[in-house]
């Protein structure tokens, strides 16, 4: 905005303001009514939905679902949508950081003096697209399948090894399902496709030792299973066996 | 400097004070009447020493421009939900123990044993969602009405900082109940922070209070959640509000001021 546009705006605004009404009581009454409405909604939600508590946090456990608060779903889903591992840092912090910087600097690069939304087509379209994208990602996050359900057919090479191997495979599958691996990984028909890589044929790509190493020392944001390895090495070994026989 | 003229709030005629009658003595006479004036005297005593009434008048009797509608209540509603969070948070803090061994039990005590405990806990929990929704609605209004443009650029920047601080509040608050869901979601969240460029690893080390998610992590999240960030939010909100009053709230962009001719016609016809 140049000096003339600034002065024109201030003059116009001064007129609008002098033709307006005093903040008290007119705006205060509206604000007060809105505050009562907000309070009523919060109280109703508290009474209806309550504040239930899940099971106590346990660092050595295997049953959990890392689900963020719903308004972080769009950030979380960004991880799922962006697949190639090289781009994951971009999804986790790159895009949010860039969006934040763009948001901070908005008044400095949008120098169009026009304020009516229909006369700022680029800004209005960008705004609507951003809201639509966030809404879509939140919807994806909300409708993501339960990560604790995994049902993979027993591979032929496992059933060929006899009853013990099949039992071991089933036990490992249960541990993996409980651990919520499906929250980020896909196993055949089950689990979510991303942010983590698909594990349907992980045994073909990685040997058992490498899988165990990854579980103990994973790439972020995956949590480490070192706690499980120490507290319950049997379950940990079953998990590794199950994953390494997925071929 | 010219004395600032403030608009007088409109009062219906029947409530206007009667004009003074000659020959009558005004002011309190009996001790009871004096006692009735106590509040006014106290306010007057404070005002004589602080001159705060000028500021209050400046804040309350400033004019809001023509066309101000319900969209303009979203900002104050966000502030109100923050105040609700602060009050319910204080009551929760009276019972909460920020220790990784006892946090979960203390929340269970709040839910099951404390009078109205689950109700206040629920208000705090759902109030956070409310505040996030309201802050986004307020931001959307500001964006589509072009209200971030000259001369209110700085207020937009402060608003974005408030948005980030609000998201920090919900991130750090999510861990505090210390149940499975909050514990593992926080681990993943901190790990996500760690993948960030440059400051990422330092940020996640700072949040975890060390290389691993341990006993001190919870008290760190607690301190950030109830001391550091709320203080910053309150300070920035105060500045945000001061700038709103200083620069004035915007009018909807399609509202135009009446020309002096239109105003004259209205005066003649009425």
UniProtKB/TrEMBL annotation, chain A:
It is found in: Membrane. GO terms for molecular function: electron transfer activity; heme binding; metal ion binding; oxidoreductase activity. It is a multi-pass membrane protein. Gene3D superfamilies: Cytochrome Bc1 Complex, Chain C, Cytochrome c-like domain. GO terms for cellular component: membrane. Its main location: membrane. Residues 13-142 form the Cytochrome b/b6 C-terminal region profile domain. This is Unannotated protein. It comes from freshwater metagenome. The lineage of its organism: unclassified sequences, metagenomes, ecological metagenomes.
From TrEMBL, chain B:
SUPFAM superfamilies: Transmembrane di-heme cytochromes. One of its GO terms (biological process) is respiratory electron transport chain. GO terms for cellular component: membrane. The chain crosses the membrane at residues 70-97, 130-148, 154-176, 223-244. One of its GO terms (molecular function) is electron transfer activity. Residues 42-253 form the Cytochrome b/b6 N-terminal region profile domain. Keywords: Membrane, Transmembrane, Transmembrane helix. The keyword Chaperone does not apply. Residues 7-16 have a biased composition (Pro residues). InterPro entries: Cyt_b/b6_N, Cytb/b6-like_sf, Di-haem_cyt_TM. Residues 1-23 are annotated as: Disordered. This is Unannotated protein. It comes from freshwater metagenome. The lineage of its organism: unclassified sequences, metagenomes, ecological metagenomes.
């Amino acid at each position: 905005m140049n000096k003339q546009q600034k002065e024109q705006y201030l003059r116009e605004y001064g007129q609008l303001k002098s033709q307006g009404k005093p903040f008290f009581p007119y705006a205060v009454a509206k604000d007060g009514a809105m505050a009562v409405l907000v309070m009523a909604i919060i109280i109703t939600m508290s009474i209806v939905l309550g504040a239930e508590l899940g099971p106590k946090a346990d660092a050595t456990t295997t049953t959990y679902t890392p689900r963020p608060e719903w308004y972080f779903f769009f950030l979380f889903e960004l991880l799922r949508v962006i697949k190639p591992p090289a781009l994951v840092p971009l999804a986790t912090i790159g895009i949010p950081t860039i969006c934040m910087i763009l948001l901070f600097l908005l008044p400095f690069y949008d120098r169009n003096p026009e304020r009516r939304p229909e006369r700022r087509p680029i800004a209005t379209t960008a705004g609507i697209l951003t809201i639509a994208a966030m809404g879509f990602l939140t919807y994806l996050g909300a409708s993501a399948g339960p990560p604790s359900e995994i049902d993979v057919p027993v591979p032929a090479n496992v059933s060929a090894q006899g009853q013990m191997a099949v039992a071991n495979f089933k036990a490992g599958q249960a541990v993996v399902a409980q651990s919520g691996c499906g929250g980020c990984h896909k196993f055949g028909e089950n689990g979510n496709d991303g942010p983590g890589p698909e594990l349907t044929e992980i045994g073909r790509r990685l040997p058992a030792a490498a899988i165990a190493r990854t579980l103990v020392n994973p790439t972020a944001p995956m949590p480490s299973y070192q706690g499980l390895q120490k507290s319950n090495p049997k379950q940990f070994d079953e998990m590794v066996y199950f994953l390494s026989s997925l071929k | 400097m010219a004395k600032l003229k403030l608009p007088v709030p409109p009062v219906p005629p029947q409530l206007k004070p009667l004009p003074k009658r000659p020959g009558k003595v005004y002011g309190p006479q009996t001790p009871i009447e004096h006692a009735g004036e106590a509040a006014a005297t106290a306010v007057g005593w404070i005002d004589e020493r602080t001159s705060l009434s000028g500021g209050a008048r400046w804040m309350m009797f400033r004019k809001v421009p023509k066309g101000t509608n319900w969209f303009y209540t979203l900002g104050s509603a966000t502030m109100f939900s923050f105040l609700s969070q602060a009050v319910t948070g204080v009551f929760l803090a009276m019972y909460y123990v920020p220790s990784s061994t006892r946090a979960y039990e203390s929340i269970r005590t709040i839910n099951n044993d404390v009078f109205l405990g689950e109700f206040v806990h629920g208000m705090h929990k759902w109030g956070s969602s409310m505040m996030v929704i309201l802050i986004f609605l307020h931001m959307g209004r500001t964006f589509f009405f072009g209200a971030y443009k000259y001369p209110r650029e700085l207020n937009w920047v402060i608003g974005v900082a408030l948005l980030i601080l609000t998201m920090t509040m919900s991130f750090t608050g999510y861990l505090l109940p210390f149940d499975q869901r909050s514990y593992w979601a926080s681990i993943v969240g901190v790990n996500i922070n760690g993948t960030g460029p440059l400051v990422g690893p330092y940020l996640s080390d700072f949040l975890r209070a060390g290389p691993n998610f341990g006993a001190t992590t919870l008290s760190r999240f607690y301190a950030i959640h109830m001391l550091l960030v709320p203080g910053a939010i309150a300070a920035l909100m105060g500045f945000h509000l001061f700038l709103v009053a200083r620069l004035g709230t915007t009018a909807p962009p399609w509202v135009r001021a009446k020309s002096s001719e239109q105003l004259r016609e209205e005066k003649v016809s009425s």
